[in-house]
Amino acid sequence: MTEAEKSSPEISLAIYRAPRASLDEKVVFKPSRGLNCDGLVRDLSESGIYLVSRQRMSLGTEVVFYLNLPVQGARKLCIVSGEIVRVDVHPSNGLRGYGVRFGPDLPRSSKSLLEQFVSLRLSDPSSAS
């Protein structure tokens, strides 16, 4: 992301315009510098993910996620990557929240799974569990 993109209100708002599906799902992820870690996905959209974890990461860190999404009656592996664009620190419990925007080069299969999951979850929240 360029400095102009980071400061552009239109681009910043676009992150939040995508429909978001609420979720409380364990996830394995790998920061660009580090080993596999675990966390909890709080919400998911076609453009990004909100992750809660004890892992310390910085803005701009690239992260790969290994999501097992319930789609069409089965769990399907969806591998996506993105950049941390937001960090929330919760000092009372040691957790950190991360807003991650997916990159533009998402594989078509991953994008399709995300679209299916979010659509299903928004139309019937009980169906995606």
Question: What features would you describe in this structure?
Answer:
The protein is α+β, with helices and mostly antiparallel strands and 129 residues long. The protein is built from 3 helices and 6 strands. The radius of gyration is 14 Å and the shape is globular.
Short description:
With 129 residues, this protein is α+β, with helices and mostly antiparallel strands.
Using the coordinates above, name the CATH class.
Mainly Beta
Cα gyration radius (Å): 14 Å
* Form type: globular
Strands, count: 6
Q: In what order do the strands lie side by side in the largest sheet? A: 1-2-3-6-5-4
Beta-strand residue percentage: over 45%
Distance between the termini: 34 Å
Structural class: alpha+beta
Number of domains: 1
Mean pLDDT: 82
